[in-house]
Amino acid sequence: MAVQLKKPILIGGVGLSFLLWMGSMLQDTLMGVGEWGIPSAIALGTGLWLWQSRKTPPTAPKVLPKIDQKVVEAEIHKVQTILEKIQEEDSDTDPSYLQSQLNSLWENLNRDSLNLVITGGKNVGKTSLKTTLDLPSHHLSETSPLYQNDSNLETIQTTALTSEVVIFVVNGDITDSEYQTLQQWSQQQQKLLVVFNKQDQYSPEEQAIIYQQLKTRLTPLISEKNIITSTASPNPIKVRKVKADNSHEEWEETPSPEVETLQTRLNTILTEERLTLLYQSTWRKAQQLKLEAKTILNEIRRQRALPYIEQYQWIAAGTAFANPVSSLDLLATVAINTQLIVDLGKIYQQTFSFSQAQTVAGTLGKQMVQLGLVEFSTQAVTGILKTNFVTYIAGGTVQGLSAAYLTRIAGLSLIEYFQEQEINDTTQVNPNRLQAKLQKVFQNNQRTALLKSLVRQGKERLSLQG
C-alpha cells in the first residue's frame, strides 16, 4: 500500500523543518539556532501545542446501566453494525455464524425456562445443593470446581455469564480470588447469590462471625438478601436416649437439609425478576458477540494500518537523517505523526481535524518524553550500531533510526487505542488511556531483536555502510 505524499500536513511540516534548518545555518551557535527556530515555529502555530500543559478531566465513577429492552436492542444493533462493516471492508470474510447467533438473541428474550448455575471452589457442597433444590420449571446445572485448573476458568465464566442466575457457593469466608470473580461478574450485570454452605462444620458463634464477614465484604457488590446460609448435606449427629433404669442407647441421625431460605429467595427472584434477568443475559450475550465481531474487524483494519505505519516510520527516519539539527527535527516528526494519525483515523473511522490530530500528536510526543522512550531509543540504537556495524555514524543515523522506532511505537499505540473504541465513536481522545496503550506497546516492543531488525532495515534505507 503506497502512501501518498501530496498531503498539506506532511509536506508543510517537513518543508518547514528544512526551511528552519537552512535559516539556522546563518547562526553562529546551536543556541542561536534554538532562539531563532523555536519562536518562528511558534509564530507559525505548529510547535507551541507540544509543550502546553493540559488538565486531565476527572474520571467519572463507573455507573452500571439499567438493562431494559431499549438497551438490549441498542446492543444488538451495535453488533449488527459491526457485522455489516466486516462485509463492507473485507468481502472475503464470512461472519454468517455470528449473524446466526445474533438472530437467535431475540428468541432468548421469550424463554419461560431460565438457566441457573451453581459454581464455587472444591468441596463446598455444589452437588448436594443442586440435588436438594427444587426448580422443576427451570434448568439448574453445576460447573467443575473453580481455581483448580486455569484452563477451565474461561469455560466456567462463559457458562456463568450466559445464565440468568449464578449461585456461588462457599464454605467459609471468601478468598481474594473468589472476591475478584464475584466483582467481575457483578460488573457484567450477572445476578449473584452467595451461599454460605456447610454451616454445621462451625459452632453457632463461628457461623455468626463468618456470615457477618461475608456481608461486610460483599454488600457493596451483592444485596444483603442475596447472601444466604444453608446446609445442603448435614453431617450425622449422635443422639443419646436415657431409659428409665438410667441406661442409655446411642445412634446417629442425619438432620434434614437447611435450604429453605435459599429456595424461597430463588422462587421470588425467578418469579418477580424474570424479564430483567432475560434482558441482562441477552445483553451479555450480545456483548460477547460484539467482542468476537470486533476482533475480526480489528484484524482487518490492522492489516490495512500496518503498511501506513511502515512507510511513515521510514519517512520520519529519512527526514531526521537528512536534518542534522535535532531541535528543529521535532517539527518534521510532529508533521509526520499528525498525518499518520489522520490516516489511521480514517481506517478506524475516527475522524480527526488537523488541529485534533495535532493535539493527539502532541500528547503522544509529551508522553514519550515522560516515559523515557526518546532516551531509550537513542541509547538502544547507538548500542546496536556500535556493536554491529564497522562504520558508525552517530548524528543523523541515530536520529533517523530513533525517529523510525518512535513513529512505529506511536502508530501501534494508536491502533491499540482505536481498537477499543466503539464503532463511530466521535469522543475526544482520552490522554490517560492513550498513555496506558503507549506504555503497553513500548513494553512489548523494546526487545533487542526487534530493534536490531529495525536497524538492519534502516541500514539499507539510509544507505549506511556496514
From TrEMBL:
Q: What's this protein's name?
A: DUF697 domain-containing protein
Primary residence: membrane
Q: Name one GO cellular component term.
A: membrane
Q: Which UniProt keywords apply?
A: Membrane, Transmembrane, Transmembrane helix
**Record localization:** Membrane
Q: How does it sit in the membrane?
A: Multi-pass membrane protein
Concerning InterPro entries, the annotation shows: DUF697, P-loop_NTPase
Signal sequence region: none
Q: Organism source for this protein?
A: Euhalothece natronophila Z-M001
Q: Among its keywords, does the record have Transmembrane? A: yes
Which Pfam family, just one, is annotated for this protein?
A: DUF697
Superkingdom, according to UniProt? Bacteria
